[in-house]
Amino acid sequence: MAFSSAGRNGPLAEINVTPLVDVMLVLLIIFIVTAPIVARPIAVQLPQATDRVVARPDPPPPIELRLDAANQLSWNGRPLAIADLQSRLQAQAGKYAGNLPELRIATDPAAEYEGMARILAAAEATGMERIAFVR
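^ that's the sequence the OP posted. Answer follows.
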């Protein structure tokens, strides 16, 4: 706290603005120097619109897997051994190389979790990306 020596015994009530002016001048100089750098345009290659129609292949039919209470697997309504599932999925992945079919899995509430885990492991090993769980 600053005290005056001009005969008053109380504290000096004036604010010293010199540090404030110094900080403001420094900020002004910084903004003056950086403003031209910020205003410089950046070249960007934007995509151009075309009238060309892109043909998309029809999606393959979905694969419906069902695991019943006796842990019997069926592929689109036909029985299939869980051990043969991965080779069958790999054949489908080879058939529809860039456009894999959707895998729809339905399980009975009484089915064991191990059967479902084997189905998901086979789907992951073959690269199936679209998996749906249905009732």
